[in-house]
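Quick start: what a row looks like.
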Amino acid sequence: MNYSAVLDILRITIPLLAIMGLVYMMLKNFQENENKKFLLELQKDTKKQSFPMRIQAYERLVLLAERLEPAAQFSRLNLDADTASQIQMMMLVSVQQEFEHNLAQQIYVSAPVWAQFVKAKEQLIGIIQQAGNQVPKDASTQDFAKALFAQLEKTPPTDLLVAKSALKEEIANFL
């Protein structure tokens, strides 16, 4: 093979390789841009679908906070219970059930807000137990209520108020 034939092959091959390299880079760039567009569209759709669920979760947590308030519990529970220990047990069960009913809401709120609700529940259970320990087991429900509200006055601000505040702040940031 002579030298001019090799040069002819190189004249054809080098530009062909350059064109192939450019086409590859263009296709790669195009594919990356399409992937980015797809991911952005997917995120947009996800946000669009999750927005109502997240708002509903916020609403349910606000309702949970209100239902956990001792005054609200007294209005819902049977105050004709015979003894302080009975109303104490009813309140403890109510707090636990309300919280368990709303466990799934933690998916839609930040970890610090959910942690504050857990802390509020634990504090409220502790306050109810302390109030129950301050009165005789066979005391009236009114005596238990007085002890409970006296205990609540000793521990302001309650973690429940802090949880409500944190939730309101998160809602404001979300909207």
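That is the whole record. The two ends are 76 Å apart (CA to CA). The chain is about 85% helix and 0% strand.
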